[in-house]
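During the reporting period, we have paired protein sequences with backbone structure tokens. One record among many follows, to show the layout:
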Amino acid sequence: MVSEMKIEDEIQQTKPFRSNRHRAMVNLIFTHNWMVDQLKAKIKPFGITMQQYNVLRVLRGAGEPISTSVIRERLLDKMADTSRMVHRLSQKNLVLRQECGHDKRLVDVSLTDKGYELLEKLDHIESEVDSICQQLSEAEAGQLSMLLDKLRG
């Protein structure tokens, strides 16, 4: 049996939440931060940030060079400074920035061989990443995902 740590215990809440919706919102924010910390620890040895990892995955998924504005639209973290991240990834030789052929104001970004190699290494830790949610059955994970989709409307 897996022991559960209630959100009230985690944040040392002494007063009851004003409603179940309020409790769910606080729990979601707390759990998000906990998951991000877990993920950061898994990718830290690879020398990139969570946001940079997300950019690399977006580029791989695109399968062709895309602009920084398209990358920004596809990122999980909409507040991220895409241009700065792409610049840092370029300095690490993980991405290639090229002037866009049809619009000189835009920059097309693509993965380098080194970027693909890094993603392949990161693919090998997927089971470690999946273990973050090991307390949930596949059915529970599906139900949670459905509820989160519903929450966003």
